[in-house]
Design a protein that fits this description.
The complex is a heterodimer. Chain A is an alpha+beta fold. Chain A has helices at 16-23, 48-52, 65-71, 80-95, 119-135, and strands at 7-13, 33-36, 43-46, 74-77, 101-105, 108-112, 141-147. Chain A contains five helices and seven strands, in the order βαββααβαββαβ. In chain A, α4 packs antiparallel against α5 (119-135). Chain B contains one helix and seven strands. The chains are: A alpha+beta, B mainly beta. At the A-B interface, α4 and α5 of A face loops of B.
């Protein structure tokens, strides 16, 4: 990849709340998992298994009661203290890969990789090594690399 | 939506004076006070990958890990032979000593009442993290 071009990485954790809940629940590794919004209203995070069962983003829980029962979907109230803690860990690790980081949300971060001549190696390392150590899921991160994009500006 | 409160590692600011305390004028030794002790620095190498776990059960009492103790677990350490690990057996956490020699992998308890856990063919050992410290209270032993 051309190192002189503006290169911004967008790191986005896969179904972050569900991944967080699974960190301390090894029994749920292959079970469909959903996390509900405040006051247990709607599904705001769905594991890949739950998505495959047709649980839509933001669906009110009362509309999928039967689905939850039939397929044994694990349902969690949101635990923002847990998500914030794990998010801080992920962001701290990501910050080691670039001097310029913009934390965009609890599970998304931009990294400016402009000028690095080992961008692909960094992308691979970020996706597969350290974050895996923290959250224990190789599927956690989706890593997008774009050269010279106007998506984000620091000025 | 209320702002989430991060779980932070609380610091223990202990200042170490190498002199008795004088009531009257400031101790000249105060100029030589050491920097405060941060227990996190002693107990944690990689903060992003370190978690605390409460022990339940007696299977590791032979090496001084008792029910109710708190374990410091580092996920960034690659587990090696003879290390104490937090492993996942039958979809549940367990603390054991890792045995990894000559193609044989098993989890050994440090208590004769608990047999070793041997991995069957095709069964994958899942180590969640490596235990680096055990915090055991000696107040009410």
């Amino acid at each position: 990849m051309d190192a002189s071009a503006r290169s911004i990485a967008l790191i986005d954790c896969n179904n972050f709340y569900c991944s967080c809940e699974r960190v301390f629940r090894p029994d749920l590794l292959t079970t469909p998992v959903i996390v509900l919004s405040n006051n247990d209203g709607c599904a705001v995070s769905r594991s890949a298994e739950a998505k495959a069962l047709g649980v839509k983003m933001g669906v009110p829980i009362f509309q999928i009661r039967d689905l939850v029962r039939v397929h044994g979907i694990a349902v969690f109230s949101s635990n923002y203290a847990l998500y914030a803690d794990l998010s801080n860990r992920v962001m701290t690790i990501l910050s080691e890969y670039s001097p310029i980081q913009e934390v965009y949300s609890i599970d998304e971060s931009f990294l400016d990789l402009t000028g690095f001549n080992d961008i692909n190696e960094r992308a691979t390392a970020t996706r597969l090594s350290q974050i895996f150590e923290v959250l224990g899921s190789k599927r956690l991160l989706r890593f997008l690399l774009r050269s010279c994009i106007s998506l984000w500006s620091y000025f | 939506m209320s702002k989430p409160t991060p779980i932070t590692f609380s610091q223990a600011p202990l200042v170490l004076f190498h002199a008795p305390v004088y009531a009257g004028f400031p101790s000249p030794a105060a100029d030589y006070a050491q920097s405060s002790i941060n227990l996190n620095e002693h107990l944690i190498t990689n903060q992003s990958a370190t978690f605390l776990f409460r022990v339940r059960g007696d299977s590791m009492s032979g090496i001084g890990i008792y029910d109710g103790d708190t374990l410091v677990v580092d996920r960034s350490i690659t587990p090696k032979h003879k290390q104490i690990v937090l492993a996942i057996v039958d979809e549940d956490f367990t603390v054991k000593r890792l045995y990894k020699r000559n193609g044989i992998v098993k989890l050994i308890a440090e208590n004769p009442e608990f047999p070793p856990i041997e991995l069957k063919d095709g069964q994958e050992l899942r180590v969640w993290g490596v235990v680096t410290f055990n915090l055991h209270s000696l107040l009410n032993v």
